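Hey L., structure's done. Input below.
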Amino acid sequence: MVKIRLARKGRHELPFYRIVVADSRFARDGRYIEQVGTYDPAKGIAAAQINEEVALKWLVSGAQYSDTVKAILTSKGLIAKAKECKAKKGE
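Output:
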């Protein structure tokens, strides 16, 4: 199963995350399929950067997301866009 989740980078007590698409069997910080964006918890969810085209492509194709990534995608409005795209495909 393909998941959109966080991969931790940064140093001790200063985490920085990449938002990646990875097979669920891969390690958290290991191999991934594609990088979708970045998230710095010190700056907050609003400052997260996401490549919308790539994220929508994976969401429409059925990728699942972690809880934190869900919050980020919801704040950017991408989950709603993905549902609209799925509805258009179904017509």
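The chain has one domain: 2-90. The radius of gyration is 13 Å.

-- N.
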